[in-house]
Design a protein that fits this description.
Blueprint: E1 7-14, H1 18-30, E2 34-38, H2 44-48, E3 64-65, E4 68-69, H3 81-95, E5 99-101, E6 105-110, E7 116-120, E8 123-132, E9 139-140, E10 154-157, E11 171-175, H4 179-190, E12 195-198, E13 208-209, E14 212-213, H5 214-220, H6 256-261, E15 265-267, E16 270-273, E17 277-280, H7 284-309, E18 332-334, H8 335-338, E19 340-345, E20 349-350, E21 379-381, H9 398-424
Parallel strand pairs: 1-2, 1-8, 2-5, 8-21, 10-19, 11-12, 11-19, 12-15
Antiparallel strand pairs: 3-4, 6-7, 7-8, 9-20, 13-14, 16-17, 17-18
InterPro entries: Auxin_biosynth/cation_transpt, CHP04046_FMN-dependent, FAD/NAD-bd_sf
Pfam families: Pyr_redox_3
Protein name: MSMEG_0569 family flavin-dependent oxidoreductase
């Protein structure tokens, strides 16, 4: 494979979000020549794929990006969307990464010498190593049944939602009760819209417990330092749905039962459409109870930690007791009679790595790796959920992941350079 017309760098980083920029920062410190390829603009998802009332669900002090840990005056608060974007722009300015924006990677292959060939919309490159930092949330998931729903129903994915006022008048069905679904349902509810929520198996967590943010308690307990290999679920934890909670208005619980008291209609898992009615599993009670059990279990573990450490608190242990009980399971909803004019699909994303020609993926299209290091020499991932710890896909753990990977890249580069020098050396006379 000819490399004559291709620009060569030691490392190509694919993706210009916080993970890619963090990787660039440590590579600069290590002196590795690299470029960052971003198909949109840097930090695109944070700037353009969040709703207007979005806030962090983790406290600001957990923002620990290289070169710029949280620099505001409210470490225990929760940055709103525009505040977060401003913080990330300051971070990007500090990093000053060699980014090439608007460049789509079309294909990545390796040759017999282990050299990477990267074909892009802006020319071709070669590299000794490649770091994929594009995350794992690429293709919005919308089920095929959406194609059969009436054209009069406005359908969007959670990544497209901005605010209630942009939606047609009428009720809104939110499908999915993970972090995005629960928070979007709350946003619509607070705006006075009639909300129908199709729940899933997402767990919930208290915002504050016994006088302190639950995140802070869990951090004290070492939860966020547990590696994926130490976790009881092992690598299966990567498939877990995040707990729903919010940082809105200073932070609070999200209690779907309370929403039901206030008029939100709750259903179980949505499974189909028969041409007239939406069909749901009769599992709403199970979903709510399971979420509440997780909520109480986490608080119980905090109670045990407080007792073990001999910590004195002004607030004693408590147990969440449901304020609303399900009268009966409803498995069908007539779409025309309901007044629903909009459906927001909040059921996640799927990965899309078809451009990467490497035997490092499992049957679901997720990369197989050990702390971001794959079995293919010179190929790495960063920014994935539970890459190493809970914080790997967030702002609290990406710095440690970048530093770890950088050590591997430096070592590999030294070995590769030494091998090439040896191969190019003249034979002894």
């Amino acid at each position: 494979m000819s490399t004559a017309s291709k620009q060569h760098v030691e490392v190509v980083v694919i993706g210009g979000g916080q993970a890619g920029l963090s990787m660039s920062y440590v590579l600069q410190q290590a002196g590795l020549n690299h470029i960052v390829l971003e198909k949109n603009t840097i930090l695109h998802g944070w700037k353009h794929e969040r709703w207007d009332s979005f806030t962090l669900v983790t406290p600001n002090w957990q923002c620990d990006l290289p070169a710029l840990p949280y620099d505001g005056d409210d470490p225990h608060g929760f940055m709103k969307g525009q505040e977060l974007v401003a913080y990330l722009e300051r971070f990007a300015s500090k990093v000053n990464a060699p980014v090439r924006e608007g460049v789509t990677v079309k294909q990545v292959v390796t040759d017999e010498q282990g050299l990477y060939h990267i074909a892009t919309s802006d020319g071709d490159y070669t590299a000794d190593q490649v770091v994929v930092s594009s995350g794992g949330y690429h293709i919005p998931v919308i089920p095929r049944m959406a194609e059969r729903l009436p054209e009069t129903v406005h359908q969007i994915h959670s990544a497209q939602y901005k605010h209630a006022a942009e939606l047609p008048d009428g009720g809104v069905l939110v499908v999915g009760s993970g972090q995005s679904g629960a928070q979007i349902a709350e946003d619509l509810h607070l705006e006075g819209r009639q909300v129908f929520l199709a729940t899933g198996d997402a767990p919930r967590v208290a915002r504050f417990y016994r006088g302190k943010d639950v995140v802070e308690w869990l951090d004290d307990m070492g939860y966020y330092q547990i590696s994926v290999n130490e976790h009881p679920l092992g690598s299966n934890v990567r498939q877990n749905t995040n707990h729903y909670v919010t940082g809105r208005d200073g932070g609070r619980d999200i209690d779907l039962r309370q929403f039901a008291i206030e008029g939100m209609e709750l259903y179980g898992l949505m499974t189909g459409w028969d041409g007239t009615q939406l069909i749901f599993e009769p599992n709403l009670n199970h979903n709510l109870q399971s979420a509440d059990d997780t909520y109480n279990n986490i608080n119980t573990r905090i109670d045990a930690w407080i007792e073990k450490q001999g910590i004195e608190t002004d607030i004693g242990p408590s147990v969440y007791r449901p304020v609303w009980q399900l009268p009966e399971e409803r498995t069908r909803l007539n779409l025309a009679d309901s007044g629903i004019s909009t459906i927001i699909w909040c059921i996640g994303f799927r990965p899309e790595f078809s451009w990467l020609d490497a035997a490092v993926f499992n049957g679901q299209g997720h990369p197989k790796h050990e702390r971001g290091v794959t079995l293919q020499p010179g190929l790495y991932f960063i920014g994935l959920p539970w890459l190493h710890t809970w914080g790997s896909g967030r702002f609290s753990g990406v710095r440690q992941d970048a530093e770890y990977l950088c050590e591997r890249l430096v070592s590999y580069q030294q070995q590769r350079d030494a091998s090439q020098q040896q191969a190019a050396a003249p034979l002894p006379a």
